[in-house]
Every structure is written in C-alpha cells, then in structure tokens.
Specification:
alpha/beta; five-stranded parallel beta sheet; six-stranded parallel beta sheet
C-alpha cells in the first residue's frame, strides 16, 4: 500500500494562483542563507531550529514586502478611498504557513528547505499563535486569576500596550480598558487625518483642507462597541483642531463611520460610567453630552410627548450610576449598522435596537459573517481541497460559490469514497496528536463529536455535558448493546473573572475522568477537554470532526464562524436555529443538518409563560438522573458539593433554558447515531453541506461591506514591479 500524502504534498497539488515555480528554489535558498548569516548572524554550525525558523520567515517576508511596497506606491499614485477597520480583537493564528499559501510560495519553500536538509513542518511548528483580544480563538487570558495584575504590576508606564484587558460577554468597566480603547482610536484617527491631508496630483503633493471630502476618501468600520470612542474623538479633531462648525463636523462623522454589532446579550454591550469619563476624558464627555442633546431633540421632534422613548434612546443611562451606552453612541454616529447573520440582524431590529430602527430604518443592514477558504480549507485540509479540485477545478478557492458544482457528484461512488477517505485520514492524524499531547488513546473509528468555542452559559456546553452523561448511563445500563462509539471533544477558554465558565470546564474534565476510566464503557465513549484551544489546534481539530455542536439557545448567538469552518471541512451540524445555522440550513438543505430545539418565537413564548426548570427535571427521568449525579458528587467524589452551584443555576437561574431543549436534543442525537452507522448516507449529507458553503466565504462578506456600506470597489489592477528608488 502506498504511503498517504502528507498535507504539504497535497498542498503542492493545489494552490491559490497555480503552482509556484520551482525556479524560485535556488533564489529562496540563497535568501535563506543570507538571512541566516547577515540577519541572524549564525551559520549552520551554531544555528538552532529557532534560527532556521526566523531565516525562513524573513525569506518569505521579503516576498511580502515587495508586494506591500508596490501596493503602497499604487495607492500613493491613485489616491483611492481607504477602509480603516478598527477592532480590539484579532485571531490571526500562525502567519508563516498562511502567508506562503497566499503567496503561492509553499511548494518552492518546501523544496528549498528540503534541499537544505531541513523539515519545513518542524520550522512552522516553532511559531506561536498570535491571539489578541478575546473570543472563541483569542487569548482570553490565563485561567489563573492573578495574570492581569501580575502583568500590570511589572511596569505601570507600559500598561496601556502591555496586555489587552479582557472584555468578555460580561462587560466590566475598567479604567485600563477605556484607556486602551481610546489609545487605539486616537492613534488611528491621527494616521487617518495625516494621510487625508496630504494628496498627490501628478508629481505634486498638495495639502487637502476640505474635510467635506473625508467620507469620499475614508471609511471607518467600528467592530463592535470597543472602538466607539472614534466618534467623539473624530468630532474633537474636526471641531477643536480643524475648527469646523458642529453641524458640518457631525455630517462628516456620520458619513464616515459605520458600526457592526456582534451580540444581542445586554450585559455584553459596553456602558462606561460617566464618572470615569469625567476623570479620564472630560472633553469627550462634553462632546458625548452634546451629541446626546441634539439626538434627543430629533427624537422628541419625531415622537412628541414620548418620554419613555427618550429615556430608552438616550446615550446616557440615568438609573443608578450614570453610564454612557456605547452601542447607542455607535448607532447615532454611524450611517450604517449591521448584524452578522440574518436572524441576528432581524433580532436587533425587532428588540435590542427597535427604537433606533423605527426612527432610521435606512441605517440597518445585514452582513453575514464569512471565513477564508485559503486558511480553512486549502491550508488546514489540503486532502479535501485536492479531492474537490479534481472534480470542479481550482477556481473555487477564489469563488467559493463554485462548490455548488459538487451537488452533481452526491451520488458518485468514487467521490463519496474519496471524501470519506480524507475524513478518516484527518481523524487518524488528530488521534495521533491527541495521544501525543493529551496522553489519551481514542478510537479513530468512533464519531468525533466536537464543540469548540468560548465557554459561556449561552453556548450551552452544559447541554452537551447532559447528553454525555445520559449516553454514559445508557451504555452502563445496557453494556451488551451495539452502541455507536463516540469521542466527545470540548474546547474553549473562559474569561478570567467568569466563575461559572470555569466551573463548566471543571465539570467537563470531571465527567471525562469518570467516563474515560470506566472499563464497562471502554472506547465506546471518551470525553476530552481540548486545553489551550487556539487557531493552530482548530486547524487540526476541525478537519477531523464528524459532528459539529452548535447548540446555543435560539436568539443568543450573533452568527458564529466555527459552524462555517466545520461545514466546509465535512462535518455535519447538530444545532439550533440560531445565528448562521439558519442560513447554513437554507444553503445545504435543512434535512442535511440535525436541527433540534426551540426557535426564537418558542423562546419568546416560554419567557412569557415562565420557564420552570423543575418541571422538566421531574418529567424526564434521564435528565433527573444526570442532574442528581452532578449534584450528588458522582463526578466529584472527593468534593461532593463541587458542582452544586452549577446545578442551582440550572434549576433556578438558567436564562438559557438548557432543560427546555434537553429532550429534543437527546432525540436528535439518536438520529445522529443511527445515520453514522450508514457511512454512505452520512457522506452524502457531508457533500451537500460542502456544496452549500459558497455563501460563507469572507470574500463575499468583504465585497458586500465594500459595495453596500463603504461605497467602493476593490482595486484589481496588476501592479508594476517595485521601484527601489521611490
């Protein structure tokens, strides 16, 4: 039997712009040695693997810089409109391999390092993940509670840029966080204004002073409320420094700025104490008050006598401690407001921002999130990319809608076999990785059931836990039955101050400790918590997944992108009609996903009726058994009361109604088990899902932002070679 192709060998057969010329190999080797000698000041006698990594990274960077310079020269000559996307969250993962793939250099680099006696995969593994901010793949911070204080104590003068203060789904107003948010937007706006003021016409540079043209040359996209300070800061610059009158400055500000909302959870929306602004940013507070005064005048003129509406729409919340509602500031100060999935955008208009939508409906749009197929298919799953390219060609990498062409192969025996083979190869590789790094041996023929995302009550990792316990109890009750083997993997990080999330992680690991060491269960059920979940681990786990758990309470998830990554990589989704799951079901066909649970209307109706967890607890024996095991110390015999807080929350304070969806979730998981026993039919559904992924390309998302919010088209001209004299 021939040896399976490595991921590097597979990527040699599929690339973004065709094959990179092997004639580049000699040049790459020369540049590699040049950087090793003259940048790192090492030779082969003393160089370490880390040195070789930096030599390769600098070699690739040379190619990137050449393109960067040409691009900047082009922009300097053409003076196009520019987009400034301000965000405090970036989950870039490793950049070396991603850059090589995007530059179509990976083949040549692989050959060059091979000829130099080096292993490129080993060099790539030297790079740490870059995780900035918080979220599913970001670095929320260590679960060690003293992490932030320890860093802050090191050097107070550098605090503002030393560590990004985590801001998770429970907003906590901290002075350092506000300083950091202002630091980002102030630096950005200074750069924007500097660049706007200097323009080139022919060979002449002239100073641009007509700020009414700013929206024609600048688009500022506010990614959630974290950069909301850009609005009062831009007003301060225009009014105080550039001496524009208020009305003109405000018109420029609104036409320049746009706002993307990422959450419907009220506690996640930033609300800064007025006292903090008084102390830290007094001029900006004056500007916010003036924005609010004029805004409320417009509201009062349109809705005379409606004082309750004035209160709801004010930028300043008066109850108790006065706070500035930054989401309201973003809406008022922007010309466009969008959610990141259709259901999310509809909820914003119907509930969270209902008053603002009624007043200015033209502002509200939807821009469904997307993912890049270069990283999330070509790079992390080259085997699947190759199988797809063999059927429909390579152009799908730049036009993901072409995946629809796979529908005609849904009954093709060879294609079904190839897709299933790639999945099994990915599972085998991930099983080896888990054995090496987690010291657990799993059955690669078991269903890989994966839920990886931020640990949060609304993500409902607890619902997953209840299914695991129920499945465990069923196996124990009937050990001789032919059970569908499962390996359940849960990964994600908890915010430093989010105690419940940390307890959920402890519960997952405690369940795994019992299940994984029960000889009656054996390899029919394993539970693994994927520690230090990050982009690089996602790139291994997602291609290996059979089942993707997207089980948030309907109406709570803005969109999600992990769900799209799993779908593109051939996992089937078990999920609620929430976030982008709704559009995934539309694109792939609802029958090709495992949909369960309440819809948004059902959740709303239950809120009106009143959710009483004890009714489900008393009515469903398997649910009662699982809860009693958790509360009684079955999974924590040395600390029997360890998880009583979780049980108390589930029984009395669960806003996300885990028990209400339990019964339907368990039934849906039974359907999953039944289908998994029929690999051919399972793989057919996988093909329908892959074929339906075209909509979820970030290329489509960015193009929609560009045309429908920023009012611009991408620059597609072929750029000239760099001019070293410029």
């Amino acid at each position: 039997m021939s040896k399976p192709l490595s991921d590097h060998d597979r990527r040699k057969q599929i690339s973004v712009r065709g094959l990179a010329g092997i004639e580049n190999v000699a040049e790459l080797k020369q540049n590699f040695n040049r950087h090793l000698h003259f940048t790192l000041v090492k030779d082969r006698n003393v160089a370490t693997r880390r040195d070789y990594y930096f030599a390769l990274a600098n070699t690739v960077r040379d190619h990137l810089i050449g393109r960067w310079i040409r691009t900047q020269q082009h922009y300097y000559e053409k003076d196009p409109k520019r987009v400034y996307y301000i965000s405090l969250e970036f989950y870039m993962g490793r950049t070396l391999q991603n850059t090589m793939v995007n530059l179509a250099l990976e083949n040549a680099c692989d050959e060059a390092t091979y000829q130099l006696g080096l292993d490129m995969e080993e060099l790539e593994d030297m790079e740490e993940d870059a995780g900035l901010g918080n979220g599913g793949l970001g670095r929320l911070a260590v679960n060690v509670g003293g992490y932030i204080q320890a860093v802050l104590d090191r050097n107070l003068a550098e605090n503002i840029s030393r560590v990004l203060y985590p801001n998770d789904n429970f907003f906590e107003g901290k002075e350092l966080r506000l300083k950091q948010e202002y630091f980002v937007v102030s630096a950005t706006l200074q750069d924007i204004i500097r660049r706007f003021k200097v323009s080139k016409f022919g060979s002449r540079e002239i100073a641009r002073t007509d700020f009414s043209k700013l929206p024609d040359k600048v688009a500022i996209q506010l990614n959630d409320t974290h950069p909301a300070m850009a609005i009062p800061e831009l007003m301060r610059v225009l009014v105080d420094e550039e001496k524009l009158d208020w009305e003109k400055a405000w018109d420029i500000c609104v036409r320049t700025c746009a706002y993307t909302n990422h959450t419907v959870l009220p506690e996640a929306l930033e609300r800064w104490p007025v006292d903090l602004f008084t102390h830290l940013l007094p001029r900006h507070l004056e500007i916010v008050y003036e924005i609010n005064r004029r805004h409320l005048e417009r509201v009062a003129a349109k809705y005379p006598g409606d004082n309750d509406r004035l209160r709801r729409m004010s930028l300043i919340e008066e109850g108790g401690q006065k706070r500035i509602n930054m989401a309201h500031l973003c809406i008022v100060g922007s010309h466009a407001v969008n959610g990141v999935a259709q259901i999310h955008s509809d909820i914003l208009k119907a509930t969270v921002f209902k008053d603002f939508y009624e007043m200015e409906p033209h502002k509200f749009q939807n821009k469904t999130n997307g993912i890049t197929p270069r990283r999330w298919l070509v790079m992390c799953n080259p085997g699947l990319a190759e199988v797809i390219a063999e059927r429909i060609g390579e152009d799908f990498i730049r036009d993901l809608d072409q995946l629809q062409g796979l529908r005609k192969f849904v009954n093709d025996e060879a294609f079904i076999r190839d897709v299933a083979k790639v999945k099994q190869e990915n599972k085998l590789k991930f099983a080896v990785h888990l054995e090496e790094h987690y010291k657990v041996k799993i059955n690669p023929n078991s269903m890989f059931d994966i839920q990886v995302k931020r640990i949060h009550e609304y993500k409902r990792q607890l619902l997953n836990c209840l299914h695991i316990i129920t499945y465990y109890n069923r196996i124990k009750k009937e050990p001789n039955k032919q059970w569908t083997p499962r390996t359940v993997m849960i990964g994600g990080k908890a915010a430093p101050g989010y105690h419940t999330a940390k307890m959920i992680i402890r519960l997952i690991t405690a369940i795994g400790e019992v299940v994984n060491n029960d000889p009656v269960v054996g390899d029919r059920l394993k539970v693994i918590f994927l520690e230090n979940y990050r982009v690089t681990l996602a790139e291994r786990a997602i291609p290996a997944a059979d089942l993707s758990e997207q089980i948030s309470t309907a109406g709570t998830e803005a969109s999600g992108t992990g769900n799209m990554k799993f779908m593109l990589n051939g996992a089937l989704t078990i999920g609620t009609m929430d976030g982008a799951n709704v559009e995934m079901a539309e694109e792939a066909g609802e029958g090709n996903l495992f949909i369960f649970g309440m819809r948004v209307d059902d959740v709303d109706a239950l809120d009106i009726k009143g959710y009483r967890a004890e009714e489900y607890y008393n009515r469903l024996p398997e649910l009662k058994q699982a809860i009693d095991q958790i509360s009684g110390g079955f999974f924590s015999p040395k600390q029997p009361d360890l998880f009583k807080e979780i049980v108390n929350m589930l029984m009395h304070h669960d806003r996300f109604k885990v028990f209400a969806d339990y019964e339907d979730y368990i039934k849906c998981q039974e359907e999953v088990n039944a289908l998994y026993k029929n690999p051919k039919e399972w793989t057919k559904k996988v093909i329908y899902n892959i074929a339906g992924c075209g909509k979820f390309s970030s290329d489509r998302t960015i193009a929609q932002y560009a045309r429908e919010i920023w009012g611009m088209e991408p620059t597609l001209e072929k750029l000239p070679a760099p001019d070293d004299k410029q």
